[in-house]
Write a structure and sequence with these properties.
182 residues; mainly beta; Jelly Rolls; 6-stranded antiparallel β-sheet; two-stranded antiparallel ribbon; 2 helices; 7% helix; 37% strand; globular
């Protein structure tokens, strides 16, 4: 009855993200951790994640999040690339494209309250997940604005995990000559 009530109730769009699972890399922990990508009320707190630097701009990155429920209807994902006001020229460290995967963590790694893994690499390793939906690739604007990526249709995510794949790097950092995504 609870499911039928929720399905028949008026649609109330809201943020479905519950918590961060992991990032494929991070440049400086904890200052640039994935947790900084979640919206929060503190204006002064840093609100960005930074990948590790790469020589090859084609190296992808991913961010994985746990959703509020193991059953979520997802129709849009919003991302805002960082404009580095503290760097010369105020570069934007965006990906070229973005793609989304929805699914669940494979057993035995999952319990009601905890993900059983040993390292960040395991947290983002595709062999630990079943992806039941993969979106098309969307181009990202090289602008410091909230970008809305609407899926071709609403997707029922059974399992409560979303993976954001950041494909291609645009900006080479002047300090170390490596490509980053922020």
């Amino acid at each position: 009855m609870h499911l039928s009530h929720d399905l028949l109730s008026p649609y109330d769009p809201k943020d479905c993200i519950s918590c961060c699972v992991g990032a494929s890399s991070t440049d400086h922990l904890p200052e640039e951790a994935i947790e900084n990508t979640l919206e929060h009320d503190e204006e002064w707190r840093p609100s960005y994640w930074s990948s590790g630097g790469q020589k090859d701009p084609a190296v992808p990155e991913c961010l994985i999040y746990s959703l509020q429920s193991e059953l979520c209807l997802v129709d849009e994902i919003r991302i805002r690339p960082l404009k580095a006001f503290f760097r010369y020229g105020h570069p934007i460290y965006s990906a070229k494209h973005v793609r989304f995967r929805l699914g669940y963590l494979k057993p035995p790694h999952w319990s009601e309250t905890h993900v059983y893994v040993q390292s960040d690499a395991e947290l983002t390793d595709d062999s630990n997940y079943v992806w039941t939906y993969t979106s098309p690739e969307f181009p990202m604007l090289q602008e410091n604005v909230m970008q809305s990526f609407k899926l071709p249709h609403s997707v029922l995510c059974i399992g409560g995990v979303v993976k954001i794949e950041l494909l291609g790097r645009v900006h080479k950092d002047t300090f170390d000559g490596l490509y980053y995504i922020w």
